[in-house]
From TrEMBL:
The keyword Oxidoreductase applies. The keyword Oxidoreductase applies. Residues 62-104 form the FAD-binding domain. It comes from the Eukaryota. This is FAD-binding domain-containing protein.
Amino acid sequence: MFFMYISGENKAGNPELIQKVLEKYAKVLPPFFLDIVQRSDVSTLHWAPLMFRHPWNVFFGNLSKGNVTVAGDAMHPMTPELGQGGCQALEDAVVLGRHIGNLLIKTKGHIATTGDNNVAQAIDGYVKERKWRVTGLVIGSYFSGWLQIGG
């Protein structure tokens, strides 16, 4: 996405220009990357602008409702600069699995949807645990991307 604004000109609407920029950057990578870029169908080249989600929406927002929650990019969208998107989705899975697993152990495999020791409480524990970690990463990711495109 950083390459879309070179020399003050927006190249996003022109697939041929996007491919030329990609070729330029692919030359510093192993040769097969340049081959992939050169063989790409230019009509399939797309771009998406960096979007910002306020970190306080992650931290203070409603990330679960009853027995339903969000995970991965739905919980904490971030730009690719820190390389943490997939990693955080895996961490989400582990933490959610641990909370639900602990519920299963505590209730000897009987999951309730109401009352004490229910799924909603396990999910709430997952959300509370993940909010702290991902809020900082969303902030760091945004600022890293912001600096790379010139602030």
